[in-house]
């Protein structure tokens, strides 16, 4: 046995007992284990071992770990996170940041204090010189906590940075708070970065910031972001984020996002489409908590590797990070397997870090349910799994692990907070990157410029290249760089130092010509990384000849496509910034409310939505290719530009199914209802007025109204349902009666179907001109369209729209605004059914008339019923009647098309060619199956589960949970088949603690919501009836004749 893996048995026994008494009730199907027992379920790569250093009850629900300059560990404890399946009371201020010390040097933390208590789900911690900065949920404010009497408890709290309120789902709020090599402090989900200088905090816009949970940087300052929601464990790492999100084809090697868990609990947000037939996760869906290993206690080939936590898959990925001629690539260090993987369902690694001792640390939240409540709603696939395995019962625990190698020699505990700036300087060349970065930060915070001469000598002559690099950046942080020092740095023997020097020189490049000769040399440097940094810096530093320099750099490096791609992306990013700023400035002058909302929405979109929809709103290709995109384009989308009632529902409750006959890789847009009305309105306004889109403002009150109207909706919408809220134009214009106080003789030309004729005001625009529409019957008006294309400057300079039931009493205005192009689309907030509309022109033009060439009204007819989901509609009918209807009117051939199509994907589980899987072979005749039971099985899969597909959970004596279909059982053993159609697992009866039948079918409910109409349901049932009656021959015939 590896001695490094041995831990005090007595200590662990106490921990195990504590684990059993922490909660009154725990899952019987996924029971929590002691740290020792949990580690025993892990597969760890040879030579490495996992060692517990801190666990419950000393910590609960840990999510972040950092250390201060004296090596004291600070742990973020999210004690209110998902304490029940609905996530109630999560914002109760009872979470904390605790401090822990290893007083005897054995590697186990034995002294514990509550450093900061009564917090609202803290999420970021940054130790400074004599204080610790903490960021909480639902605010962008950052507070400074000081322990003035050194008892381990903060007793002085001050506002360090005022950022204001921050709403939204807690999974989509800032994380990180990382002091990078460039002396800027970065987070995810914000449109700025921070810097502590001259005793105050300053911010700088960061237009293309991104990320979700977790943030890290490498030795030269490249940031590595991740987006669990976008299923991308690493992005925007090619170049520093200040140059925009830059990515290169092949930066993740083929198959990088595929994961290889060893557990089989399918609690995956994406449902069956994200699990293999053996219930293991197929790809990253919760990747985050990443860190670049920068320590010195692992083998040398570990240095610079990217560590990614995947709590849904219960695994840790070790990724190799390689520079291939200017392209950073990521690959799995262990093909077909993982660095660490566990069978324990409660192993939930959510963060990682390099420690002061040079080792790798892992934060295990150790709990049952990991997804936030927004993704575990009633009726969701995930909720059923959580309930089946009772995952919501396992709460209030947590562990910090250290990963050792058999060659590991842990480094000493630092005492940097007790050292002077002069003493700290020697750590800038330390082999452990944690020491280098901590020393740089503390020297800058001290602000002692008396050490500058020695720092300069170090920057020029230190033996270690990274020591010279950190010395340069430390001088930059003290605002003491000079052109002479940078010129020497640009000639350094190490490419990393040369690249740092040209980047630090950016503020000088616009005016100091002394760098021009050096720029020419760097532009043809032997290191592609230096060439790329030079290209970026001359542009970002606004060198007067930036375009010419860029051109000759590209010519000099024309054999390297990475240089050209990065240059093109940077230019595109810069052009987008300039164009957007110009647009916002123009919009501010005419509609400040919309402009301000769009600015806020831009930040939300860039940090949450770009991963799937793309920075340009055109959608990102799916990782596995195949012509699929992750999400549909938003640029030009009728759902985006159409009525807010439709877009609002999509944002609130989500969207499922094909869009315009295209299937997207994810197939489901998750609901955003947990965010505030203002948050949703802001992101809606941004997408409705970007990339060529243009639409009226959506206000928080609009979202609130839509939220109330759709409160009873369960599950995501389909496009068919949503058509109701963005109806076509009325076709009864010949029955309309139009009246006006101007040019009455030409009113009929508004609705004559001839766009070359027009009604006009017969005078230049001035307030008070109006026209009314009397409809033949009441409708709910949604959108009024004034087409003035043939007189494209005659749009209304302002308008007010009122409605009435009788033409006498007019309601308060249902729309106010102004036109700015040839077609004015006016979204209406009508209170209900009306017959009369009045449009009054309120603006003024000294040149143009008010004209209307064609007038149309999009409205919901009086007899139209609000949408009801297909599942709800069919549930109102008796199964017998549905079966009879299918036999009478259904078409089996059309049903086969549905069965084998990508939308519902029935064949994935039921096609005999795939073998027995999650459901029975439907071509096998079963006497108990009737036409009615087929209907029941589709509409309510869990009502009666076939005995051969009644899954069971087998809980073994060592706490493992195995799920599958029973095959056979005798006194000695139980055999179950994983839902893979063949793989059988034999379990000795002596190893079994319990066998629990699962009451929920593996087939999700609500699949029928994707059907267009009841006739498709009849077609599908008719197909199933014929296959059941005719057997395999009929099934093959229908399949092959599609």
Largest sheet: 7 strands, antiparallel
Classify the helix fraction into a percent range. Answer: 25-40%
Number of domains: 5
Oligomer: single chain
| Strand content bin | 15-25%
Keywords: Heme, Iron, Metal-binding, Signal
Organism: Aporhodopirellula rubra
Pfam family, one: F5_F8_type_C
InterPro entries: ARM-like, ARM-type_fold, Cyt_c-like_dom, Cyt_c-like_dom_sf, DUF7133, FA58C, Galactose-bd-like_sf, Haem-bd_dom_put
Question: What does this protein structure show overall?
Answer:
It comes from Aporhodopirellula rubra. Residues 596-691, 890-1003 form the Cytochrome c domain. One of its GO terms (molecular function) is metal ion binding. Residues 1-23 form the signal peptide. By secondary structure, this protein is of the alpha+beta class. It has 5 domains: 3-36 and 49-119 and 221-405, no CATH class; 416-574, Leucine-rich Repeat Variant (Alpha Horseshoe), CATH 1.25.10.10; 591-725, Cytochrome Bc1 Complex, Chain D, domain 2, CATH 1.10.760; 733-861, Galactose-binding domain-like (Jelly Rolls, Sandwich), CATH 2.60.120; 870-950 and 998-1040. 27% of the residues lie in helices and 22% in strands. The protein is built from 26 helices and 41 strands. Helix 6 (452-461) runs antiparallel to helix 7. The longest helix has 30 residues, at 561-590.
Provide key terms for this protein.
Cytochrome Bc1 Complex, Chain D, domain 2, Putative heme-binding domain-containing protein, Leucine-rich Repeat Variant, electron transfer activity, Quinoprot_gluc/sorb_DH_b-prop, iron, 1042 residues, 7-stranded antiparallel sheet, 27% helix, single chain, 6-stranded antiparallel sheet
């Amino acid at each position: 046995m590896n001695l490094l893996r041995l831990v005090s048995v007595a200590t662990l026994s106490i921990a195990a007992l504590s684990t059993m008494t922490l909660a009154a009730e725990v899952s019987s199907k996924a029971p929590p284990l002691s740290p020792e027992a949990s580690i025993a379920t892990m597969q760890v790569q040879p030579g490495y071992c996992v060692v517990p250093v801190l666990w419950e009850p000393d910590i609960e629900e840990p999510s972040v770990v950092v250390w201060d300059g004296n090596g004291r560990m600070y742990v973020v404890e999210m004690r209110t996170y998902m304490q029940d399946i609905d996530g109630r009371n999560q914002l109760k201020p009872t979470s904390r940041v605790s401090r822990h010390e290893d007083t005897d040097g054995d590697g186990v933390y034995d002294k514990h204090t509550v450093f900061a208590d009564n917090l609202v789900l803290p999420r970021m911690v940054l130790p400074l010189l004599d204080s610790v900065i903490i960021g909480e949920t639902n605010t962008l404010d950052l507070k400074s906590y000081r322990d003035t009497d050194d008892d381990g408890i903060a007793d002085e709290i001050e506002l360090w940075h005022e950022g204001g309120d921050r709403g939204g789902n807690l999974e989509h709020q800032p994380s990180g708070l990382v002091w990078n090599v460039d002396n800027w402090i970065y987070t995810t989900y914000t449109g700025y970065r921070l810097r502590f200088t001259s005793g105050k905090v300053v911010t700088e816009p960061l237009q293309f910031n991104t990320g979700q949970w977790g943030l890290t940087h490498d030795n030269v300052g490249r940031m590595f972001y991740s987006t669990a929601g976008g299923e991308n464990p690493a992005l925007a790492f090619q170049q520093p984020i200040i140059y925009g999100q830059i990515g290169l084809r092949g930066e993740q090697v083929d198959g990088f996002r595929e994961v290889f868990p060893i557990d089989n609990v399918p609690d995956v947000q994406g449902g069956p489409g994200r699990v293999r037939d053996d219930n293991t996760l197929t790809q990253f869906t919760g990747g985050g908590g990443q860190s670049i290993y920068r320590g010195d206690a692992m083998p040398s080939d570990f240095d610079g590797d990217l560590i990614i936590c995947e709590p849904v898959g219960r695994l840790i990925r070790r990724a190799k990070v390689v520079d291939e001629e200017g392209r950073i690539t990521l690959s799995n260090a262990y093909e077909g397997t993982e660095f660490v993987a566990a069978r324990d369902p409660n192993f939930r690694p959510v963060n990682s870090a390099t420690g002061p001792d040079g080792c790798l640390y892992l934060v295990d939240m150790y709990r049952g349910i990991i997804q936030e409540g927004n993704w575990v709603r009633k009726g969701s696939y995930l909720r059923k799994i959580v309930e089946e395995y009772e995952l919501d019962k396992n709460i209030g625990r947590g562990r910090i692990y250290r990963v050792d190698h058999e060659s590991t020699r842990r480094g000493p505990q630092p005492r940097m907070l007790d050292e002077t700036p002069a003493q700290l300087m020697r750590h800038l060349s330390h082999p452990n990157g944690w020491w280098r970065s901590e020393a740089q930060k503390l020297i800058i915070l001290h602000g002692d410029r008396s050490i500058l001469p020695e720092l300069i000598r170090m920057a020029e002559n230190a033996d270690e290249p990274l020591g010279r690099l950190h010395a340069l950046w430390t001088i930059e942080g003290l605002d003491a760089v000079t052109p002479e020092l940078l010129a020497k740095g640009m000639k350094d023997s190490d490419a990393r130092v040369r690249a740092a020097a040209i980047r630090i020189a950016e503020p000088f490049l616009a005016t100091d010509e002394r760098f021009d000769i050096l720029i020419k040399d760097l532009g043809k440097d032997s290191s592609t990384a230096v060439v790329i940094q030079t290209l970026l810096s001359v542009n970002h530093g606004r060198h007067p000849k930036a375009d010419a320099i860029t051109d000759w750099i590209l010519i000099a490096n024309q054999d390297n496509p990475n240089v050209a791609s990065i240059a093109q992306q940077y230019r595109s990013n810069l052009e987008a910034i300039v164009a957007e700023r110009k647009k916002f400035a123009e919009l501010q002058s005419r509609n400040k409310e919309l402009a301000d909302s769009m600015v806020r929405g831009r930040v939300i979109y860039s940090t949450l939505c770009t991963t799937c929809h793309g920075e340009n709103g055109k959608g990102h290709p799916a990782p596995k290719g195949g012509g699929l995109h992750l999400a549909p384009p938003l640029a030009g989308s009728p759902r985006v530009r159409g009525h807010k009632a439709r877009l609002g529902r999509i944002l609130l409750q989500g969207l499922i199914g094909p869009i315009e006959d295209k299937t997207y890789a994810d197939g489901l847009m998750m609901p955003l209802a947990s965010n505030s009305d203002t948050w949703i309105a802001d992101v809606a306004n941004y997408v409705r007025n970007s990339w060529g889109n243009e639409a009226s403002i959506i206000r928080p009150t609009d979202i609130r109204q839509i939220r109330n109207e759709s409160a009873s909706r369960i599950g995501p919408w389909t496009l068919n349902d949503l058509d109701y809220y963005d109806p076509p134009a009325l076709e009864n214009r010949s029955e309309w009666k139009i009246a006006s106080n101007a040019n009455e003789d030409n009113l009929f030309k508004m609705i004559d179907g001839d766009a070359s004729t027009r009604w006009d005001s017969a005078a230049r625009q001035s307030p008070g001109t109006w026209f009314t529409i009397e409809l033949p019957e009441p409708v709910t008006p949604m959108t009024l369209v004034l087409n003035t294309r043939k007189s494209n400057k005659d749009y209304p300079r302002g308008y007010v729209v009122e409605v009435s039931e009788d033409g006498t009493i007019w309601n308060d205005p249902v729309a106010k605004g102004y036109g700015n192009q040839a077609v004015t689309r006016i979204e209406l907030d009508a209170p209900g059914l009306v017959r009369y509309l009045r449009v009054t022109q309120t603006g003024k033009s000294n040149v143009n008339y008010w004209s209307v060439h064609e007038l149309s009204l999009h409205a919901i007819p009086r007899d139209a019923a609000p949408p009801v989901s297909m599942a709800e509609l069919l549930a109102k009918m008796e199964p017998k009647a549905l079966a009879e209807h299918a036999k009478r009117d259904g078409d089996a051939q059309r049903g086969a098309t549905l069965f084998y199509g990508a939308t519902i994907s029935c064949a994935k589980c039921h096609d005999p060619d795939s073998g027995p899987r999650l459901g029975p072979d439907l071509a096998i005749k079963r006497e108990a199956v009737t036409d009615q039971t087929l209907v029941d099985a589709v509409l309510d899969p869990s009502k009666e589960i076939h005995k051969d597909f009644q899954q069971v959970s087998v809980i073994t004596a060592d706490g493992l949970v195995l799920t599958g279909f029973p095959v056979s059982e005798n006194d000695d053993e139980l055999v179950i088949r994983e839902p893979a159609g063949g793989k059988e697992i034999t379990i000795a009866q002596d190893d079994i603690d319990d066998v629990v039948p699962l009451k929920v079918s593996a087939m999700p409910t609500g699949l029928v919501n994707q059907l267009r109409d009841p006739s498709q349901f009849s077609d599908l049932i008719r197909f199933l009836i014929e296959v059941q009656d005719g057997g395999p021959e009929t099934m093959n015939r229908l399949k092959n004749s599609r």
